[in-house]
Amino acid sequence: MHNLINFLRKNSHWFVFIFLEIICFYFIFSSNSYQKSIFFNSSNEFTGRVYTISGNVLSYFGLRSENEELLLKNADLQSQIAELKDYIYDLENDSLKTNAFITDSLGTRQKEPHIIARVENNTISQIYNFIIINKGKKDGVQTDMGVVSQQGIVGVVRDATLNYAVVQPVLNPHSRFSCKILNSNTAGTLVWEGGDPRYASLTEYPKYEKVEKGDTIVTSGFSDIFPEGIFVGVIEDYKSGTNDNFYSLKIKLSTDFGSLKRVLLLSGKDDERKELEQKIKNVQEQ
């Protein structure tokens, strides 16, 4: 306390000077309209900038919930598109049962819930990369569930514990996904052979199909993992494969695996369809 009093006494002339300056500025701005307008314009500009910055900060922290909403909306749209394609296909192949199809199928189809998860760990520089997410069996996660992001395809669930799951991404030599050129019915196999995490290859693509650089690659729907039409990437280059009848397409992947934060897990085909396909597979192996 004694030191504070000494400090105030020692610098009292400065405090008096500042106090007089404040009084002078008060009289200047209150007595002169020009200076007053400059002061108010400057203060309004400063206040506006403060509000802008604070608004941007608040908007940034609100992006998390908005991203989750967008993921759910994208999942709903994907489900609706897949359902519409199924309806059209069935109607075209069995026009005699149109009325029964409308009354029965529309009433019995149930949309499986999708699961949003946060990426806890993610590797892109190894040969056998993996992703760990914060959702597990208690959240409904099962093996072989397809995993996507807002950018496109990510991978497939390979194992799950009660609270976590391991995703095998496209960036893993063991991954094989059926993909095709948009608006084409011919599929190839998407593989990653190591190296640059921005690129993969679409192999075994027939040469009789038209191929151009910049073509869009999507999932084919010919598997249990992904429905048709999920964005994969674009063709950057192509060349003849080991078999002269096929191309090997260099695909620039749409998903930036290095910045992956949130993913969406897709429910696969219904159990009845899986059971039927497994029976067919067992018969073929006999």
TrEMBL record:
This is Cell shape-determining protein MreC. Keywords: Cell shape, Coiled coil, Membrane, Transmembrane, Transmembrane helix. NCBIfam families: mreC, PRK13922.9-3. PANTHER family: CELL SHAPE-DETERMINING PROTEIN MREC (PTHR34138:SF1). InterPro entries: Cell/Rod_1, Cell/Rod_MreC_2, MreC, MreC_beta-barrel_core. One of its GO terms (biological process) is regulation of cell shape. Residues 121-266 form the Rod shape-determining protein MreC beta-barrel core domain. The chain crosses the membrane at residues 12-29. The keyword Membrane applies. Residues 67-94 form a coiled coil. The gene is mreC. It comes from the Bacteria. Gene3D superfamilies: Rod shape-determining protein MreC, domain 1, Rod shape-determining protein MreC, domain 2. GO terms for cellular component: plasma membrane. Belongs to the MreC family.
